[in-house]
Amino acid sequence: xxVSVVVKxxxxxxxxxxxxxxxxxxxxxxxxxxxxxxxxxFPGFPxxxxxxxxxxxxxxxxxxxxxxxxxxxxxxxxxxxLNEGLPMIIKADNSGxxxxxxxxxxxxxxxxxxxxxxxxxxxxxxxxTSKANIFTFEAKANSSVRKLGETEGVKIFEFKxxxxxxxxxxxxxxxxxxxxxxxxxxxxxxxxxRKKVAGCKVLEGKIxxxxxxxxxxxxxxxxxxxxxxxxxxxxxxxxxxxxxxFGVIFEPQLEFKPGDVLLSVQ
Length: 266
Prior knowledge:
The chain is an alpha+beta fold. The chain folds into three domains: 2-76, Beta Barrel (Elongation Factor Tu (Ef-tu), domain 3), CATH 2.40.30; 86-176, Translation initiation factor IF- 2, domain 3 (Rossmann fold); 180-265, Translation factors (Elongation Factor Tu (Ef-tu), domain 3). The longest helix is centred in the middle third of the chain and has 15 residues, at 162-176. Helices cover 16% and strands 45% of the residues. Strands 6-5-8-1-10-9 form a six-stranded antiparallel beta sheet. It has helices spanning 95-102, 121-130, 143-152, 162-176, and strands spanning 2-7, 12-13, 17-20, 23-26, 29-31, 37-38, 40-41, 46-50, 61-62, 74-76, 86-92, 109-116, 133-137, 156-159, 180-192, 195-208, 212-217, 220-232, 235-236, 239-241, 245-251, 261-265. It contains four helices and 22 strands. Mean pLDDT is 84; it is low at 67-73 and 77-83. Strand 5 (29-31) and strand 6 (37-38) form a beta hairpin.
C-alpha cells in the first residue's frame, strides 16, 4: 500500500520505522514525484511510502517516533476535499508578513500549508494533491516552478499589496459558493416503468428540468442527481414554483424516502 506524503522536517529514509496514531510501519520503499525509487527524501518534497498495512487518515501526522513529533513531520493526503473551505498554500518573504496574512484570512479558507520563502517544487505537488491554490505575499515563484505549476494544473497568485491578496481571496470564495435556487420535500414514492417517482412539494424557490439537484436526508447529502422527467399532474413541465406539487424521476436512482429534501443548486 502506497501512502502519499510531504516531508515537513528532517530526512525520511528507506528502512525508517514510522508511526501514525496506532499504526506502525517500516518504510520498505520511497518513490519521488516522478515515481522513481529513491533512498531518502528531504524536507519540502512529496513522496510515496511503501510499507503501510493500513491507510492513515487524511491529514494525519506521521513521525519516526511513537511519542515525539518534533523529529520528522509529514502531512498525508488522498483524493478529495481535506477540509471545508477553499484550500490554499501561503508563502511569504518573512515571518512577519506570513503572520499578517494568516491572522487576517477571511472565513471560508482552509490553510493546507504556510511557510517563509519562495514557492518550490514541493509546494506545487502539495497543492496538486490537496487541490489548493498557492498565494504568495512578497514571495516569488521562479520560471521553472511556475512552468511546473502550469504542467500540474496548479494556480499561483503573487501579491505585493496585502489588501489585493484578500480581495482576490474573497472573490474566489464567492465564486466557489453554491447558490440554492429551490428546495422541495419528498412526500411520496411510487413506481413507474421500472423507475421510482418522487412525489414532492416545492418549499422555496423553484425546481426546473435543467436543475442540478442534491438529495438530502437529515442535513446529510446523499448525492447529486439530474432530472429526466418533471410532471405537474399528468402534464410535462419545465419548472415548478413555491407551493406547487410535482412528480420527478431522477438519475441516478438513489434510494429516497418521504421526508428527504431536494435542493436545486447552481
